[in-house]
Write a structure and sequence with these properties.
Elements (H helix, E strand, L loop, with lengths): L10 E5 L6 E6 L3 H20 L2 H17 L1 H12 L3 H27 L2 E3 L9 E9 L2 E5 L7 H12 L3 E5 L5 H14 L6 E3 L4 H9 L4 E5 L2 H11 L6 E4 L4 E5 L5 H13 L9 E7 L3 H13 L19 H16 L3 E4 L15 E4 L16 E7 L2 H8 L7 E5 L3 H10 L4 E4 L20 E2 L4 H6 L2 E9 L14 H15 L3 H17 L4
Parallel strand pairs: 5-6, 5-8, 6-7, 8-9, 10-11, 10-15, 11-14, 13-14, 15-16
Antiparallel strand pairs: 1-2, 3-4, 4-18, 9-17, 12-13
Bound molecules: nicotinamide-adenine-dinucleotide.
């Protein structure tokens, strides 16, 4: 008898956040579909690895040139589905991926070459060691909507060039951008089973974590990251977790206020404040506070908010009603506790469904959610400080540690403050832009996650290291093998003196003692 299973299909639509227009509807991939994608990837991965790094680099170069040719088409799609201004799609999405491809192509060959591991301990000198870097196998990438192209693509390129297969589960809010990445990679020559996109919601992501993947690289919220870590724990599934941030910026009294205010306004509002590295808290030296605040307010008022596809637009819509509500709750909480709204603080319904005016707040304190929880919206709360120590203490007063920035005309002072800030990245006289430096590692401690993406450290996350040790004297029995007894102990004591004693005389005596004992030692 046939049994019929009632399968509930979850459907969702990708929307243009500026207009609310439905771009396309999708069914979520089921757990079975995810598992079969992983099985196909696993079957294909060995051949991809055996193809060799130089052939894989050639395919990545082809991807880079295809992407370059089609940059405007891809940037328009990112703007349409994620809402960000077209200029930001070019700079923070296309440029980042084109350069990540350049970085992978330039570095992967040397990175994957066996690395000699010289031994310092004399007793081990007869051995030669090498470190091999081998692909994990199948890497699951789960990504958010705020950088729908650059986040998954830069991780994917590092995974592919090192010989892995990739299953990408993009955000349910931006699936079309992920499908464009798939189309470009396949056109460049990446085999279909080596890069696959599974479309769906959190349950589809959860199915990927529960599947037979060898590692998960997750970018998203702290809550989801925690759920993934719990699901991964029983089988020690390796993870990279790129989570949230509440990035502070410090304006020292010697900063160039015109430059710093322009940089901070951009760092707080680009991508409508929906960047993991957005400036979410600003601390300004008391002596320049009013001048700095006035400059920020004047510059914020001049920003052009609108549909990102209009080339004059500087701030697009937020992604979704849910995200607007978080911003509204944080601003209302701040105002109820005494914060002052100097500009913005409201929705802009006349522009479309998800627009929020860029907002500057003062009179804020760390008792307010706006200074402690991730807001992820276009809000810049500014607070004065009296001393450098106080600024650093307030900046470090957070459960997050993704990034931070400091503004000063004294580079040495900037570097000294940077060393005292608890963050994965600190930028002196800029913010956010380190994400676009392909060589720079991205990621931070505490609730901001585990591990790194980008740069050499990001590539290290895509490989298992294997240490291979080979003895150059295959017919000689090792001193430390069986045959323990007084002779062994005397030899070892002598050796330890020879290797580690501070006095030269003791070392020489130890050496002679151990040589004598070695001769007498009988071995099994
Ligand atoms: P989210 O955690 O809601 O979703 C991220 C992804 O996880 C989506 O693809 C989602 O479908 C999937 N998902 C949801 N539940 C899941 C589950 N139980 N198992 C597996 N996958 C699941 O985050 P979001 O709202 O898409 O993104 C915004 C967050 O991402 C912010 O907190 C932001 O700071 C963070 N972020 C961090 C970085 C970084 O590099 N550190 C970069 C960008 C965004």
């Amino acid at each position: 008898m046939l049994s019929v299973l009632a399968v509930e299909t979850r459907r969702f639509a990708s929307l243009n956040p500026a207009t609310g227009e439905v771009l396309r509807e999708f069914d979520c991939a089921s757990a079975e579909e995810v598992q079969s994608a992983v099985a196909r990837a696993r079957a294909a991965q060995l051949a991809w690895w055996k193809l060799g790094v130089q052939r894989r680099i050639r395919i990545l170069r082809q991807f880079q040139s295809l992407l370059h040719e089609r940059k405007s088409e891809v940037a328009r799609l990112v703007t349409e589905e994620a809402g960000k201004p077209y200029a930001e799609s070019l700079v923070a999405e296309l440029m980042v991926v084109l350069d990540a491809a350049r970085f992978c192509c330039e570095t992967a060959y040397a990175f994957l070459r066996p690395e000699p591991i010289p031994h310092g301990n004399l007793i081990m000198k007869a051995k030669s060691g090498i470190l091999l870097r081998e692909p994990y196998g199948v890497i699951g990438i789960i990504s958010p909507w705020n950088y729908p192209f650059s986040t998954p693509a830069s991780e994917t390129l590092a995974a592919l060039v090192t010989g892995n297969a990739v299953i990408l589960k993009p955000s349910e809010l931006t699936p079309l951008v992920a499908l464009k990445l798939e189309e470009l990679l396949h056109s460049a020559g990446v085999p279909r089973d080596i890069f696959q996109v599974v479309i769906g919601d959190g349950a589809t992501g959860s199915a990927l974590v529960d599947s037979a993947v060898d590692k998960i690289v997750f970018t998203g919220s702290v809550n989801t990251g925690r759920r993934i870590a719990q699901a991964a724990a029983p089988r020690f599934l390796p993870l990279v977790l790129e989570l949230g941030g509440k990035d502070p910026t410090i304006i020292l009294e010697d900063a160039d206020l015109d430059t710093a205010s322009s940089g901070v306004v951009w760092g707080a509002f680009m991508n409508a404040g929906q960047t993991c590295l957005s400036i979410e808290r600003c601390y300004v030296h008391r002596s320049v506070h009013d001048r700095f605040v006035n400059a920020c307010v004047a510059k914020t008022r001049r920003l052009r908010v609108g549909n990102g596809s209009n080339l004059e637009t500087e701030i697009g819509p937020m992604i979704h009603e849910r995200q607007l509500q978080i911003v509204e709750r944080h601003v209302a909480d701040a105002v109820a506790r005494g914060a002052k709204v100097l500009c913005g603080g409201t929705r802009l319904p006349e522009l479309g469904p998800n627009f929020y005016a860029p907002t500057v707040l003062t009179n804020v304190t760390h008792a307010m959610r706006i200074m402690t929880e991730e807001t992820f919206g276009p809000v810049l709360p500014i607070m004065p400080f009296a001393t450098e120590n106080e600024a650093i203490r307030m900046a470090n007063d957070s459960v997050y540690g993704l990034a931070a920035s400091v503004w000063t005309s004294n580079r040495a002072r900037g570097a000294a403050v940077a060393r005292r800030l608890r963050a994965g990245t600190v930028m002196v006289n800029d913010s956010i832009s380190a994400f676009a430096i392909s060589e720079a590692p991205h990621g931070g401690p505490m609730d901001s996650g585990i591990g790194r993406t980008h740069g050499r450290l990001g590539m290290e996350e895509m490989v298992r290291v294997k240490y291979v040790d080979s003895d150059r004297l295959p017919t000689v029995k090792r001193l430390w093998w069986y045959g323990y007894g007084a002779g062994f102990s005397t030899a070892m004591e002598g050796f330890l003196d020879f290797l580690f004693a501070r006095s030269l005389v003791t070392r020489l005596r130890g050496g002679l003692r151990s040589l004598g004992a070695v001769k007498r030692k009988s071995q099994v």
